[in-house]
Every structure is written in structure tokens, then in C-alpha cells.
Design goal:
single chain; Aspartate Aminotransferase, domain 2; Aspartate Aminotransferase, domain 1; seven-stranded mixed β-sheet; five-stranded mixed β-sheet; 12 strands; 38% helix; globular; binds pyridoxal-5'-phosphate
């Protein structure tokens, strides 16, 4: 059966296609740093690419390749490049497309470190960045310069849940031959396929939904074309932000249940969003599954579901946020997202507490904002927990 034409769930289970000579049902962990060649001539061919034999794990490894092929299949891309972390993927993309004298246009409310490296490290190499509200297409048009070499989007954005129209941005970018990269961490390919919407590169923190069990840090880049793949892969290899075979094995195992995990978490999240929207201590809520989301229609168009991430504001601001955090019992008070357990955090007192008021504003962090990643527990228990914590606010 040609897996390229198979459904998403079949790909989740069967993609990868590394044939184990002993017939193992699961691709084994090839826990080795190096691979022996059959002969000097074979070794030479591996290096020139005439033979696709393995050389050295930083360059490639069957366990890692199994995962790379699988995620590439799920994203309908040409190839996957696994990295040690999501930030490994982000930096590999920046390094491949940006250099002395170049400029990048980036979503304003992007994942914190994806922004801060552009502000603190890349300027040393002559790279300039403009952060805009990419939900407003005119802001993108106005930010593009003659030296713009990359448009970098995150949608829905973290933690505002603002949605960027991928199709529309790609039209603007491609008229000027600028590649578009989308951080698809919040959706996973189960809910959104940026390459099908026109993007050139998609990346993930697989730490989140793709692995889904809060026991791995990992990243992945998928390209639409062979040319972009060939541009990116040597950067990952030479930066040394490769994945480890053990990490690849666990991530591949977690990935098998992506669809059923997201279905359950999303069903829970829809009920939790309904509950929060009607709670008297909740000032506002951002969730793409609610009609009150300002881009509800766009979300329906480019995502196949609203996902399992909510941000909401508490009446009572900073103190209310702190009080709620100190009283949750089932939800873990923790950063990260996309795992099977419900996670809650209050950015103003936790992740973003070191930022100045202005810095918080830039990142879309207000004092009352709470971020919730809904897990797969019994939804009655999640709501009961939120209810008793809100009762103490
Ligand atoms: C977590 C995250 C990252 C960074 O990934 P790591 O695996 O922690 O390095 C990048 N983008 C988004 C949207 C994330 O949530």
C-alpha cells in the first residue's frame, strides 16, 4: 500500500518505513554513534551520496530517520530534519536563511526565545528583525524590505491565540520570492498543514503535542522542496543540534497516538472554554473554538479544529492570577503545553516575571492573563479543579 495516499491515522502508525532485518514491529533504537562500511569504496559512496548508507549519528541514524520521514509524511512535505529541541529547529531555520545584511519579518507574539535570539544574538551577525502583528496583512506589507529573506509566523500565536492567515501571507511573500516558515507547534499536523496552505517550511517543538507525554524535548523542520531540505540539513548537522536515537524512539512512540490524544484534549478544551466563558471571575477568553474569538472564521478555514490551548484573563489582575495558581490541585502549575496532563501558568508572575512592563506589553502579556493547556483527564475533574481554584480568587 502506498502510504502517501493513506489517511492521517494510518500514517501515524505506519509511516517511517525503516525495514528492520530481524522483523521488529517497531523501529529499534540504533544506539550507536558510528556505522561501519562494507569497504573503502562503500564508505566513499556514502560520503558522496551515491549510496544511502549511514555514516555517523549526527549526520543520520535509522531511528531518527524513521521519525523524520513520519513527520514529513504527516505535513505533506519533502523531508524532515529532526533537532535536539524546538529551539534547535528555530535556529537552524534562522541560520539557513539569514546572514549579514539580511532582514526577517516575524510574528510579534511569537514564542519568547524565538524572538529573543533575534534581538540578542543575530544582530551580532548583521541580521535585522521586525516584529509585527502578522494577523494584520498591511503590517507585513509595510515591514517587508528589499533585504527581507524570511517571513516567520507562529499561528495561533503564544499566548494570545491570535491567528495569522497563512494563505494570504504566502501570497504576499511569494510575489517577492521570500520564503515563509510557520511554527506549527500549537496545532501539530493533525489540526493544521502549513505546507498545504503555501508555506515553504514548517517547524515544531515536538516537546509539545507531537511527543505529547511531557518526557522529551525535541524539534523538527519539514520542507516542501528538496532545495530547501538541502539548504537546511547541513546547517543542522554542522551546528550539532541533532537528535539522539533514544529521544527519536520515544518521540516516535508518543506520536502514534497524536490523533486520539488531540481529539480527546480538544473535546475537553471545548467544554472547559464554555465553562470559563461563563464564569463571573473571568474577564475575557481567547480560544479559536469560541464564536467570540476575533478570527473564528479564519480559524475554521485553516485549522481542522480549535485545539487544546486557551488563554484567559482574570478579573482582579496579577493578584487573582497568583491566587489561582496557588490553588490548583489537578492541573500542574508548569510551563510547556500539549501533553496528556493539564498544565496551567500565569506568565506575568512566572515565565515573563523578569520582563519590564514594556517588554510584557510587546509579548502580549497582561497581568491578568492565564494560559491553560488542557489535557486528557476526565473533563469533569478538570472543571471541578478550575472551579475550586477560581473560588479562592
Ligand atoms: C516550546 C516551543 C518552542 C521551543 O521548543 P523547545 O522544544 O522548548 O526548544 C518553540 N515554539 C513554540 C510555539 C513552543 O511552544
Amino acid at each position: 500500500m502506498n502510504l502517501k495516499e493513506a489517511g492521517f491515522n494510518s500514517k501515524l502508525i505506519h509511516s517511517g518505513g525503516i525495514k528492520d532485518p530481524l522483523g521488529s514491529a517497531v523501529t529499534p533504537i540504533y544506539q550507536t554513534s558510528t556505522f561501519s562500511f562494507e569497504s573503502a569504496a562503500h564508505g566513499a559512496k556514502c560520503f558522496t551520496g551515491e549510496s544511502d548508507g549511514y555514516i555517523y549519528t549526527r549526520i543520520g541514524n535509522p531511528t531518527i530517520m524513521d521519525l523524520e520521514r513520519t513527520v514529513a509524511d504527516l505535513e505533506n512535505g519533502f523531508g524532515g530534519i529532526a533537532t535536539s529541541s524546538g529551539m534547535g529547529a528555530v535556529n537552524t531555520v534562522y541560520m539557513a536563511y539569514l546572514g549579514q545584511g539580511s532582514h526577517v519579518v516575524c510574528t510579534q507574539a511569537v514564542y519568547g526565545p524565538s524572538r529573543s535570539v533575534l534581538e540578542t544574538i543575530y544582530p551580532r551577525f548583521g541580521v535585522e528583525a521586525t516584529f509585527v502583528n502578522t494577523a494584520d496583512l498591511s503590517e507585513i506589507e509595510n515591514a517587508i524590505q528589499d533585504n527581507t529573506k524570511l517571513i516567520y509566523l507562529e499561528t495561533p500565536a503564544n499566548p494570545t491565540m491570535q491567528i495569522t492567515d497563512i494563505v494570504a501571507v504566502c501570497k504576499i511573500a511569494h510575489k517577492r520570492n521570500i520564503p515563509v516558515c510557520v511554527d506549527n507547534t500549537f496545532c501539530s499536523p493533525y489540526l493544521q498543514k502549513p505546507l498545504d496552505l503555501g508555506a515553504d517550511i514548517v517547524l515544531h517543538s515536538m516537546t509539545k503535542f507531537i511527543n505529547g507525554h511531557a518526557d522529551i524535548v525535541a524539534g523538527m523542520i519539514v520542507t516542501k522542496t528538496e532545495a530547501d531540505f538541502k539548504k537546511l540539513r547541513p546547517i543542522m548537522i554542522n551546528l550539532g543540534c541533532n537528535m539522539d536515537p533514544n529521544q527519536a524512539f520515544l518521540t516516535r512512540r508518543g506520536l502514534k497516538t497524536l490523533a486520539i490524544r488531540i481529539e480527546r484534549a480538544q473535546a475537553n478544551c471545548i467544554k472547559v472554554a464554555d465553562y470559563l466563558e461563563n464564569h463571573p471571575k473571568v474577564a475575557w477568553i481567547n480560544y479559536p473554538g469560541l464564536k467570540s474569538h476575533p478570527q473564528y472564521e479564519l480559524g475554521l478555514r485553516q485549522m481542522s479544529g480549535p485545539g487544546a490551548m486557551i488563554s484567559f484573563g482574570l478579573k482582579g489582575g496579577f493578584k487573582a492570577g497568583e491566587a489561582m495558581m496557588n490553588n490548583v490541585q489537578l492541573a500542574l502549575l508548569a510551563v510547556s503545553l500539549g501533553g496528556i496532563e493539564t498544565l496551567i501558568q500565569h506568565p506575568a508572575s512566572m515565565t515573563h516575571s523578569k520582563l519590564t512592563k514594556e517588554g510584557k506589553e510587546k509579548a502580549g502579556i497582561t497581568d491578568e492573563l492565564v494560559r491553560l493547556s488542557v489535557g486528557i483527564e476526565d473533563v469533569e475533574d478538570i472543571i471541578k479543579d478550575l472551579d475550586q481554584a477560581l473560588g479562592k480568587v
